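Course assignment 3, question 2. Fill in each field.
Student: A.L.
Task: Predict the tertiary structure for the chain below.
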Amino acid sequence: MISWLRNLRLKAIMLTISAAMLVATIPSSAHAQFSLSDIYPDFFKIPDQGRFSTMGFAGGYVSDKYATVQEGFQLEQSITRYVGVFGRVTGYELWIGGGFDSPVDPGHGHDARINFGRGQAGFDLNLWPGTHFYISAGRDWGDSHAVVVEGDLSSWWMLHSFHPVNFSFSSLHDYQNGVTSTEIDFQAILKTTEKYLIMAGGGGAFYEGGFIHGTDGQGGPDLSFYYRPWMLGFSAQAGYGSAHQYVQITMYKELDFLEPSMR
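Answer field:
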């Protein structure tokens, strides 16, 4: 399972890099039949009506070895049709089982409970319809003082089918403990109505570098529910991995605002 996820991660990274190189080289080719304006019309145009969105989220994870609770919010402002800026603040509470070293600051003793916050800011890039890539950097405070960089990709496939599929990929590197954490998930829409949608699939996470010898990971099936009138979502995953059995749940609430037209 871990080797499969690792190979999939490498393929996803190469696919993203290849797509970015392709977009970058098309306009510069002397024989190119397309330009940036053909692929991304009005790329630099500021829309007459911008969009501001906010999202609050909370979640938890529990396993045989450790448990976490996190809560926070994200604010995003569109700039063009294809680029937005966002900021995210997250608070973490981490409980570690007896006898385990701190994953935040390894080699400095054991703390049963660790509390820290994380602030991040970055860009939201709308690569193509249904696909967004988020890139950000930030810093922790409290019991952790790490500098982090993160990349997140969310892409919808087969949008015109009865069961569209969402692929999501997230990778974060922590410069304090040297660990890179990566999550991959596939989910398909099972049922959708005017008021709600239900999704199911599977995914996992793996961790490399720093104090981890080799690769640790986990995976399992997941289920998601989204209630459209309230813009409220819920997801749950359970499975097995390096930390033995685990359960993970997440809730989020979105608010979306169209700004007054500049005309």
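Instructor remarks: The chain is about 10% helix and 60% strand. The chain has one domain: 50-258.
Grade: pending
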